[in-house]
Amino acid sequence: MPHMGDLVAEMLARSGVDVVFGMPGGQTTALHDGISRRSNRIRHVLMRDERNAAYAADAYARLTGKPGVCDVTVGPGANLLPAGFLEALNASIPMVGIVGELPLDWLALKEKGIASQGFDQLSFFKTCTKAAWQVPSAAALPDILRTAFRVATSPRPGPVAVIIPHDIFDADWDGVTPPPTVDDRTIRIPYLRSTAPAGDIAMAAALIRRAKRPALVCGGGVHGADACAEVTAFADRLNGLTVTSLSGKGSVPETRPYAAGVLNPLGSWAAIELIQEADLVIWCGSKVSQNTGMNWTLPRPEQATITIDFDPLEHGRTFRPTVPLLGDVREIIVALDGALGAQPARAGWLQRIAEVKAEGERQKAVEIAAETVPIQPPRVMAELAKRIGSEDIVVSDASFSAGWIAGYIPAQQPGRQFLFARGQGGLGYSVPGAIGAAETRPGTRIVTVAGDGAFSYTVGELATQAQFNQRVVNVVLNNGRLGWIQLWQEIFFKNVQSALLETETVQPSFAAAAQALGLRGFTVDRPEEIGPALDAAFAHDGPSVVEVRIDDRATPIHSFKRRMRESADAPRPRPGTVYKLRDWKVSPQLVEDPAE
């Protein structure tokens, strides 16, 4: 007789879920049995670590707009989910976690693991999700599952946890399938759209018309609203500057003359320079977080501001916007574009943008041309940029990798082609993220970039890439260090060495590990070897690892680059010093931790 695991699998399939990422346990075997009976409609990707199941589901959701679904068993499986849940929560990514639990009549025995693997999972997940429920009965299961999808996809999207006790999972099911959702629009984001009042739109349009040096800052909310085409059309008419956050990269093509790249200490020098000169900043789907706001020194006091966000709590959180526009990014941009009217030519502002961008490109050209050994990362990124196609997906790990991608691999077209783990900024996202990304578009090439520290977190998931023969090119920038930590220590603590990942006698080979796990592995030590190794990896019909030995003092952080050039005898600031942006050339911005 069918069981409630069948019911869950059937409701997932009818809700548009075609893949679940996770790891089975005794308490969740009924779910896996149910999925196996429906293999033509829904499949399961077995991960090597439950933490990585959440990251894979996160990447899947970013590319499809559908909730990413992951499953774990009770206890040790469940307690590995928070890293991925917090990433999705802070980045507004819809996710549904199916979590196993001890039988209902064992609940009094969960404390201190009296019943094996038990603990208070419901309280635990309420701290790292948008919502969490424990299913109290078989009769309640369908409605809770429907509610989970509605909550996960409603503004503001986020992860939810559905905790299902063992005895409910194994209970008999009468085979009658309830409707998978109360509202079938809740299976994808955004399913609700709204716009700001006409009067507010008119005020914002008038403010833009008066601006001499307007700037548009695009955050991840542009992608969440599926608004890249509309935002690009608006930016084309604005005759102003456009920059993005890391999560917003691809909101507009970075090939446009007005696009200055990523605004972040890890990002574009031109973006950092130019944003200070704007007299109006339009924050579009951006939280104005620590790094996009350059440690909250932006917006400057003299800058007028417009904020566009569907979350009312984002307006006025760190500054008072001149005009707040509450609603869906796409709807508001369309309305604003319609109200804008003819724009001033702003020839002087556009000329200034061109000049600063040209200077930034000259700086990058010098870095890219470097023939030094160990290799400079910009050289690697330039070679990657030549080979990445319009349908390829780039998945970044945290820390310096995000900066190398942001600054040296331009977004050629509008759309979400780049995935950055910026909700938490934790190491270890790229390899499992690639697994999730590959499941959205079978046959599409996925490219990951990670440092050796980040890559070490998830080496085991290379076996998953190999098992499913995914077309993933994993680029490892190996400097034998935790690069950001090493530079911070050198600048502020006279080179305290707690960042070493290798020694003269112990030098892990990620290319060799890849080959042992069933992938192709390539090691690159010299600049002239980069191109051939990438060509071979891109030509391979399966996963590969390209390990590049890079300079351990290379950094994409512009303030660190300047600091490393300063005299070793110069007075050192205290750790945590924050420099304001009054004069970038004199007072470089230092942030607490651009990797987080």
Walk me through what this model shows.
By secondary structure, the protein is of the alpha/beta class. The chain folds into three domains: 184 residues, Thiamin diphosphate (ThDP)-binding fold, Pyr/PP domains (Rossmann fold, 3-Layer(aba) Sandwich), CATH 3.40.50.970; 159 residues, Rossmann fold (3-Layer(aba) Sandwich); 197 residues, Thiamin diphosphate (ThDP)-binding fold, Pyr/PP domains (Rossmann fold), CATH 3.40.50.970. It is 36% helix and 15% strand. It has 22 helices and 18 strands. Helix 3 packs across helix 16. The longest helix is centred in the middle third of the chain and has 22 residues.
Which helices and strands occur, and which strands form pairs?
Elements: H1 4-14, E1 19-22, H2 29-36, E2 43-46, H3 50-64, E3 68-72, H4 82-91, E4 95-101, H5 121-126, E5 131-134, H6 141-153, E6 159-165, H7 166-169, H8 198-210, E7 214-218, H9 220-224, H10 228-238, E8 241-244, E9 259-262, H11 269-275, E10 280-284, E11 304-309, E12 323-326, H12 329-340, H13 347-368, H14 377-387, E13 393-396, H15 400-408, E14 418-420, H16 430-440, E15 446-451, H17 452-457, H18 462-467, E16 472-478, H19 483-492, H20 510-516, E17 520-524, H21 530-539, E18 544-549, H22 558-565
Parallel strand pairs: 1-2, 1-3, 3-4, 4-6, 5-6, 7-8, 7-10, 8-9, 10-11, 11-12, 13-14, 13-15, 15-16, 16-18, 17-18
